[in-house]
Amino acid sequence: MRVIEAAVEARKVQILQQDTWESSAKTYSFPVDSHLTQLTVQVTNYKTQDPIKVNIRNPEGKLMTKDDRLRQLMKTVPTVFVASIDQPMPGREDDSLQWHSVRVSGVSEVDFVPGFATTQLPHNVGSSRQPIEGEYVGTEVHTCISLHTMLVTGRDGQGYNFQRYSKVALIARKARPVVVSCPAKIEVARGATAAITCLVDSEIPFKVNWYQSGHQLTGFPGEHQTYR
């Protein structure tokens, strides 16, 4: 049983993660792609003294019941709603609820693994599982916010909308300290020349400046280059 449980857990994917503090009822829509074999809807009411009411409609707009393979898994706690749907119909389903935290997960062989790097890498090889703390410069400057989730959307091979959230919240980490390696001492005879090699190991982009006797040297190759 533990082997089966571990296998199912490995195929568990996150489809919707939302929180709201609105007092009025709200409807959430989420896509069901053709790779999903099971759905689990979990809703928690923040108003712990009030029972929660959740309605789930299939892509055809029909209110789902136990005749549609809907099983309510937790009935003893009125402020928590947990339901499972086997072999859900592909398309877009709706949840109607209020003042709540809603999580929709599923069982599927299609998921994604976040990977972060300062340069594009094939197949996440050598990437970091956490984003590096700092400001990311693109068309706009964005500060990396800690404790957030990543959302991937698209279409599956049959044309159904596809949506996956990262399984855990992503926490930004500080970049590893920059390591600079160069000779501690170089002796050059008067009138002679020498080549000085400096190796820099850094996770983030950097520039190289050379100094001699406290004065910055200019005119060397790559003076204004940003290394990544």
Automatic annotation (TrEMBL):
Alphabetized Pfam families for the sequence: GBD_Hemicentin
Chain ranges of the Ig-like domain: 177-228
PROSITE patterns: IG_LIKE
InterPro entries, per the entry: GBD_Hemicentin/VWA7, Ig-like_dom, Ig-like_dom_sf
Annotated protein name in UniProt: Ig-like domain-containing protein
